[in-house]
Amino acid sequence: MSEVEFALFDTPIGRCAIAWSAAGVAGLQLPEGRELATRARLSRRFPQALEAAPPGPIQAAMAQIDALLSGRASDLSSIELDMRGVPPFHQRVYAAARAIAPGQTQSYGALALALGAPGSARAVGQALGRNPFAIIVPCHRVLAANGRMGGFSANGGVTTKLRLLSCETPASVPETPFGGFEFDPAAAVSALQESDPKLARLIARVGPFRMQLQRTPSVFGALAEAIVFQQLNGKAAATIFARLCALFPHAVGLTPEGIIKASDLRLRSAGLSGSKLLSLRDLATKTRAGELPTLADVRSMTDEEIIERLTTVRGIGQWTVEMLLMFRLGRPDVLPVDDFGIRKGFGIAFAKPAVTKQDVERRGERWRPYRSVASWYLWRATDSL
Q1: Full domain range(s) for residue 354
Q2: Taking 70 as the threshold, does the pLDDT of residue 180 lie above it?
């Protein structure tokens, strides 16, 4: 048997890899862009490691990691680590970092002080930059001075660091019996299968409904992110949004006041276009003036009312608000007929080469009141292309 073995496992941030030995977890690899890249990165760290079924303690560690990244309470401090080959100072840094509770942060300087080594903030940063136990040793919870993000050596850099921190933020998705959705997904799928045999065939091919809601601290935060992501590929947009958030202390975050007070030059340094800068300023101004509903307000508003109110913001159209309704609020009956992916998936599912908005609207009447679930399946129809 190889001294070090490994396995891949799914988490809310993607497919991670974990390596272990008889002494405990030897390393954890965060997702790269593709699974092959994740495997390659792990192989460089552990050239002799063989893929194997994880033993009980490692299965438990994987479950704890998945729970933490899903926003559930999970204490990883009891996971045994194989520290062979880890320098003594690094071991001390990692032990101190593991004492930082989920959802909390600490600066490199404060961590150095806790170690009894004031003035060694740079050395602490270097140790965390070489951390082989990502997440288990939560280097993402250690920030630069004044709450700035600082660096992060994993794939995605600061973007990944922000994502990990957001996973540990108390859920902004309301607690419901259905994971934040305002409906029972199982009942919705069953109703769709009964109402439309052709859609039922697509559902059978795709499999279970796996849509997950995204966290959002506020309507402002959700719309600010949407503005940045418009007309950009996901990786580029995520990088710009992470840079924008990193302009402000993590403890404060991205706020209307921060956007209003920041200079154009400072905001443009994150990579924002002139048009997006104007949209963010309009969003911030309307939010601070109380012209937009809060997250609590929208819970009691209809979809149509929310669309009408939020589309008053420069750069926010109906499609953007529909995405918020579906993926942030868990609304059951949203059908974004202007979405190219929806129409493309409709053409695949219903063998129709040319699909119009009206085609989707007419067929969609069968899917009420669960058109959000039908939309998710239409998007999945294109996955195999």
Answers
A1: 185-212+334-380
A2: yes
Q: Are residues 319 and 343 in the same domain?
A: no
For residues 9 and 18, the answer to whether their CB atoms sit within 8 Å is: yes
Tokens of 66: 């998945």
Angle at 180 between CA 309 and CA 158, to 5 degrees: 80
The answer to whether residues 377 and 202 touch, using CB atoms and an 8 Å cutoff, is yes
Q: Are residues 189 and 261 in the same domain?
A: no
Radius of gyration for the alpha carbons in the chain, expressed in angstroms and rounded = 23
Strands of the 24-29 sheet, one edge to the other:
24-29, 14-21, 5-11, 50-51
E-strand ranges in the chain read 5-11, 14-21, 24-29, 50-51, 106-107, 142-143
The arithmetic mean of pLDDT across residues 268-285, rounded, is: 96
Same domain, 208 and 226: no
What tokens does 289 get?
């003036």
- Triad 348, 350, 352: Cα angle to 5°: 75
For the ranges 77-91, 102-116, 159-173, 329-343, the lowest mean pLDDT is seen at 159-173
Is residue 177 in a domain? Answer: no
- Per-residue pLDDT, averaged over 16-45, amounts to 90
Residue 13 lies in a domain: yes
CB–CB of 220/287 below 8 Å? yes
Give 55's DSSP letter: P
Position 143 scores a pLDDT of: 83
Count up the domains in the chain and report the number: 3
Which residues form the catalytic set?
Answer: 339
Q: Give pTM, 2 decimals.
A: 0.59
- Interval 44-55: pLDDT, tens: 999 999 999 999
Please report, for the domain that includes residue 138, its CATH number. 1.10.10.10
Q: In whole angstroms, what is the distance from residue 324 CA to residue 352 CA?
A: 29
- pLDDT at residue 385 in the model: 52
Whether 163 is in a domain gets the answer yes
The reply to whether 1 and 101 lie within a common domain is yes
- HSE of 4, CA atoms in CB hemisphere, 13 A: 20
Residues 154 and 19 in one domain: yes
Q: Are residues 201 and 254 in the same domain?
A: no
Domain annotation covers residue 295:
yes
Counting beta carbons within 10 angstroms of the beta carbon of residue 50, is it exposed (0 to 12), middle (13 to 18) or buried (19 or more)? exposed
Tokens (6 digits) for 1: 């048997």
Among 305, 369, 307, 379, residue whose Cα is nearest residue 339 = 379
What's the rounded Cα separation, in Å, for the pair 373 and 355?
Answer: 20
